[in-house]
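INFO  loader      accepted 1 record
INFO  loader      residues=158
INFO  predictor   begin
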Amino acid sequence: MDIVFKCGQCKQELEVDAAAAGQQITCPSCNQVISIPAPEASNIRMSASASSSNASIREEKHFAVPVSERPVEPLIKKPLPPLDASAKDGPRQMRIKTLRHSDCKEVGHDNFDKMATELVQGIGEEYIVSINTFTYTFIDIGTQKLITDFGILIVFKG
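INFO  predictor   done
INFO  writer      dumping tokens
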């Protein structure tokens, strides 16, 4: 059985064994010397070891598991796998690949047609859904000018 009381100066709640009643201790918060009061009905708390040995204080708890007739809905849904993983494991998924004209230029050579052909052959014509052209603008870092360029967008099953 424990005695629960508060420090008179800092109001820190303290708990000590009832055997220490009447002794003086130092408050751990404010270092004030205080006397442990005598056990009374208002300041007694049963300790864990005392309450476990006392059968009259034990409380039986009955828990029930809910049962449902319909399927249980998951509370947390798993994210879909990335396209790379799903393309390897299951049926082919829709994918997109872009090819920009500016990425295909080398000094004095324009390899856009060659790279587009290799890309289409690499995918396989039977898996291509559509090929679309697009234009875009960007700022050239060297000249600081706004440049308009083009590219292709390929939608395919991959």
